[in-house]
Write a structure and sequence with these properties.
Blueprint lengths: L6 E2 L10 H13 L9 H21 L6 E4 L2 H16 L3 E4 L5 H14 L2 E4 L10 H9 L5 E4 L13 H10 L3 E5 L18 E5 L10 E5 L25 H16 L1 H22 L4 E2 L13 E5 L4 H4 L2 H7 L2 E2 L15 H4 L4 H4 L3 E5 L6 H16 L1
Parallel strand pairs: 1-11, 3-4, 3-5, 5-6, 6-7
Antiparallel strand pairs: 2-8, 7-8, 9-10, 10-12
Helix pairs in contact: 1-7, 2-7, 3-4, 5-6, 8-13
Bound molecules: pyridoxal-5'-phosphate.
Pyridoxal-5'-phosphate (PLP) binds next to helix 3.
C-alpha cells in the first residue's frame, strides 16, 4: 500500500512523547488513582508521587522544592507570575519585548487595561536580540516598581537571551524578573541558584512530555498569591486536584531529557548545521531570520528561514509542504490559524523580507539527516517551480 512520507519538524509547537513517559503515565493512571488530598493510603501514594516529582524538578533547576508550583502548562505559569506581580506585589510598570509569546504579551495588555500599568517595550537589534543597553536605560530612568518579562529562548526565531545580564540588571535596579523558559528547560541546563530570576514558566509538552502540565518557579518569599482559588493543593498556591499522571509524566520526561542532554544536543546541533548548509547550497538567496546562524546566541532546536519567492507564491507554501507530508510552522503554531503574520518577525524584519514567506523548522532527536534532505529538495522544487 502507498503510504505518504511524513516528516515532523514542528517540535517547538509540541514534541512527540517518549514511550517511557507514556508507559509511566499509564501505570500511574491504572494504579495510583487516589486523590492526593485524601489522607488514606491511596491518597498518600498519589501525594508522594507529586512530591517526588517536585523534588526532581527542583533538583535540576537547583532551587528548593517549595519554589515549584505545578500548573496546567506554560500559559498558566506566565499568567500567574504576571497577574500576581501586579495584583499582589505592587508592580506598576512592566518592561517586555514585542517578540514574547502571546501568553505574556496578551496578559500584559490585559493588565494594562485593568490596572492601568505602564508598559515599555525594549528595543531589538537587527537579529531580534534584546538591546541590553536600552533595557538598562529603561530600568534606570524610573523609580516605579517594575517587572521585566523576557523569554529565555524565543519560540519562533530561537534567539537565546543572556539571562545573567538581564537578571543582574534587574537586581541592580530592584526590578523583578520573570523569564518564560518554556523553550529552554529540558534543552539547556539552567541553574536558577546562580541566576537572579524571580519567576519562571515551563511546559512539559516541549520536552517530550504530556500536554496540559507545566510548572512555575516562584522565588521563595516573593509574596506571589494564587491565580486559581479553591482547595489547598500546591501549598495553597494553586487550587484544583493535581493531575497526578501528567505531573509524573513531566518528571519522567525531564529526567530522560537531562540524562540524554549531551548526546541529543550534539545530534540535534548537527542536524541544524546540516539543514543550514544544505539550504545555503541548494537555494541561493535563502535567508535566516533572527540569530539562527550564531550557535552561541541561538538554540540548536530550530531555524527560521526566509525563502526567496514572491508573496503570491508564498500563499501556497504551507499547503504544498503539508501535501508532501512535511509539518512545520509559519510563525508559532498558535497563530497558524490566523493570517496576521508573525508578530515576532513583524517586530524586527524589513518590509521587503516580510513580503517573503518565512518558515520555522524545529527539531528533535527523532529527526534524521535523510528527512532534512527530503525537506530541502521539496523546498528547492517549490522555489524553482
Ligand atoms: C515561549 C512559550 N511560552 C509559553 C507557551 C505556552 O505553553 P503551554 O502550551 O504549555 O500553555 C509556549 C508554547 O507554545 C511557548 O513556546
Amino acid at each position: 500500500m502507498w503510504s505518504m512520507k511524513k516528516v515532523y519538524l514542528d517540535s517547538a509547537a509540541t514534541t512527540q512523547m517518549r514511550d517511557e513517559v507514556i508507559e509511566k503515565m499509564i501505570s500511574v493512571m491504572k494504579e495510583t488513582y487516589g486523590n492526593p488530598s485524601s489522607i488514606h493510603a491511596f491518597g498518600r501514594s498519589s501525594k508522594s508521587l507529586i512530591e517526588n516529582a517536585r523534588k526532581t524538578v527542583a533538583g535540576y533547576l537547583k532551587v528548593s522544592a517549595s519554589e515549584i508550583i505545578f500548573t496546567s502548562g506554560g500559559t498558566e505559569a506566565d499568567n500567574l507570575a504576571l497577574n500576581s506581580s501586579v495584583r499582589d506585589l505592587g508592580v506598576k510598570r512592566i518592561i517586555t519585548s514585542r517578540i514574547e509569546h502571546h501568553a505574556v504579551l496578551y496578559t500584559v495588555d490585559q493588565l494594562k487595561q485593568c490596572f492601568n500599568i505602564e508598559v515599555e517595550y525594549v528595543d531589538l537589534k537587527e537579529t531580534g536580540q534584546v538591546d541590553i543597553e536600552h533595557l538598562k536605560a529603561l530600568l534606570e530612568e524610573s523609580n516605579t516598581k517594575t517587572l521585566v518579562s523576557l523569554m529565555h529562548v524565543n519560540n519562533e526565531i530561537g534567539n537565546v537571551l543572556d539571562i545573567n545580564a538581564v537578571g543582574n540588571l534587574c537586581k541592580e535596579n530592584k526590578a523583578l524578573f520573570h523569564c518564560d523558559m518554556v523553550q529552554s528547560i529540558g534543552h539547556f541546563n539552567v541553574d536558577l541558584s546562580a541566576v537572579p530570576v524571580d519567576f519562571t514558566a515551563v511546559s512539559a509538552h516541549k520536552f517530550h512530555g504530556p500536554k496540559g502540565v507545566g510548572f512555575a518557579y516562584i522565588r521563595k518569599n516573593s509574596g506571589l498569591r494564587p491565580l486559581i482559588f479553591g482547595g489547598e493543593q500546591e501549598r495553597g498556591q494553586r487550587a484544583g486536584t493535581e493531575s497526578v499522571h501528567n505531573i509524573v509524566g513531566l518528571e519522567e520526561a525531564l529526567k530522560i531529557a537531562y540524562a540524554n542532554l549531551k548526546e541529543e544536543k550534539e545530534y540535534v546541533t548537527a542536524l541544524k548545521a546540516h539543514f543550514i548548509e544544505t539550504l545555503k547550497k541548494e537555494i541561493p538567496g535563502v535567508k535566516f531570520n533572527g540569530d539562527c546562524l550564531n550557535a552561541e546566541t541561538s538554540t540548536y532546536t530550530l531555524i527560521n528561514v526566509c525563502l526567496p519567492v514572491s508573496s503570491e507564491k508564498a500563499l501556497m507554501l504551507l499547503f504544498q509542504l503539508d501535501l508532501k507530508g512535511i509539518a512545520c510552522s509559519k510563525g508559532s503554531a498558535c497563530q497558524s490559524g490566523s493570517d496576521k503574520g508573525s508578530h515576532v518577525l513583524n517586530a524586527f524584519l524589513s518590509q521587503e523580507d516580510l513580503q517573503k514567506p518565512s518558515l520555522r523548522f524545529s527539531f528533535s532527536h527523532y529527526n534524521t539527516k535523510e528527512e532534512i534532505n527530503y525537506v530541502v529538495s521539496v523546498l528547492k522544487d517549490f522555489v524553482e517551480s
